[in-house]
Specification:
Shape: globular
Strand order of the largest sheet: 3-2-1-4-5-6
Distance between the termini: 38 Å
Oligomer: single chain
Number of helices: 9
Order of helices and strands: EHEHEHHEHHEHEHH
Low-confidence stretches: none
Number of strands: 6
Length: about 220
Amino acid sequence: MDKDSYYDISNTGDIAILGGSFNPIHIGHIGMAESAYRLLGLDIVLMPNKTTYYKENKTFAPDEDRLEMLRQVADKYSYIYYSDMEIVRGGVTHTIDTIEEFKKVNPDRKIYFIIGGDSLEWVDKWVDAEKLLRDVTFLTAVRGETDKVRTAEIIERLKKEYPQSKVLMLDMFDIPISSSDIRELLGRGEDVTGLVPDYIRDYILEKNLYGGSNG
């Protein structure tokens, strides 16, 4: 398979899209991809966004650097790919736009969408939420029993309001880190070993992204 593009892949397996800014990608993102693969044997597509309606003023690393970091991750896993679909589309983008475009390219493949538990709570507020919940199976990361209970309550509510909705839980280890935390640490010149793969850390330092440097 061509790791540089997911537009032309004619594989017959199901797809799980993991979207985000990946600014930078970190071990939490990779853990979600690994969990989805272990649960369902899916091809995982990392989908970096150009911008979204809730992050319009956010400072992004250059698109080419975020894509290069994803390419490096994809090279390490047989089941992880990445797509520049949202970056190429440009402007404000919504999940439903990406799903519709992916369905045109992959009409015979079932599409899953991976999100964090906090995002699941607001998924019914997304653009075209009813269609999205009908057409896509959501995989939501849960960490520990408390998170499972809360997520089960959200799934039950969604099922009542959207009877055709499909949500499965991804059981994960708790990884209390975010891209913003990593950017803050790098901005202070602190070490991020263990928070991102070593090769991603080295790339960030080489490119002096987020204030990181080789000293």
